[in-house]
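Quick one:
INPUT:
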């Protein structure tokens, strides 16, 4: 009887021993998690101003801002022109993804360099690059051949209602101004010898306009 019990215990011990060996020999297998998924960052494109084309229309200036990523509509955004002394917000006429049509009128500080940019009115953040632009008026004469002392008018844009410190120059002479309006400067032709002279508008060292030609006879 003792031999039978001993034999049973030996068999049980042997079974446990073999089972432990098999369990120890097995390698731990983990599931393959697959490639790591990286979340791509959302890129916020900077609105890009590449070009400004002005169009002078009597007493107002229409200018076209050309570039990229402006969006399909204006939303809460605005265009601003900023110089060291003044900031202007033009009226928006049309807004497309590649062009913004703007309108300026009235009195304007001409001849200054402005940074033109797009700003969000809600967050107050600047959304675009700052494009440098010197705003000048465009003078026009409809006829040629004037005599000294004759009173004539030269057309302009964004001139304002008063002359201020601005001067109308013909050649090297200052023309006496008799009336100043937003779209016209009425003046007397200086006493200069017959010839063709440049005519332009200045304020101190600033050139406020294009240079056109006037013929004195």
């Amino acid at each position: 009887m003792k031999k039978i019990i001993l034999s049973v215990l030996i068999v049980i011990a042997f079974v446990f021993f073999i089972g432990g060996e098999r369990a120890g020999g097995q390698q731990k297998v983990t599931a393959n998690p697959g490639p790591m998924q990286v979340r791509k960052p959302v890129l916020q494109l900077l609105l890009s101003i590449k070009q400004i084309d002005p169009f002078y229309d009597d007493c107002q200036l229409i200018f076209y801002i050309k570039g990229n990523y402006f969006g399909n509509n204006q939303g809460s955004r605005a265009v601003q022109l900023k110089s060291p002394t003044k900031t202007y917000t033009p009226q928006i006429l049309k807004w497309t993804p590649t062009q913004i049509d703007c309108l300026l009128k009235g009195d304007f500080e001409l001849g200054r360099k402005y940074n033109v940019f797009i700003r969000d009115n809600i967050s107050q953040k600047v959304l675009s690059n700052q494009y440098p632009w010197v705003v000048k008026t465009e003078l026009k004469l409809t006829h040629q051949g004037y005599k000294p002392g004759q009173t004539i008018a030269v057309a302009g844009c964004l001139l304002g209602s008063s002359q201020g410190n601005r001067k109308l120059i013909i050649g090297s002479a200052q023309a006496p101004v008799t009336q100043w309006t937003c779209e016209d400067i009425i003046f007397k032709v200086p006493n200069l010898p017959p010839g063709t002279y440049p005519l332009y508008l200045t304020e101190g060292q600033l050139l406020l306009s294009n240079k056109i030609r006037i013929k004195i006879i």
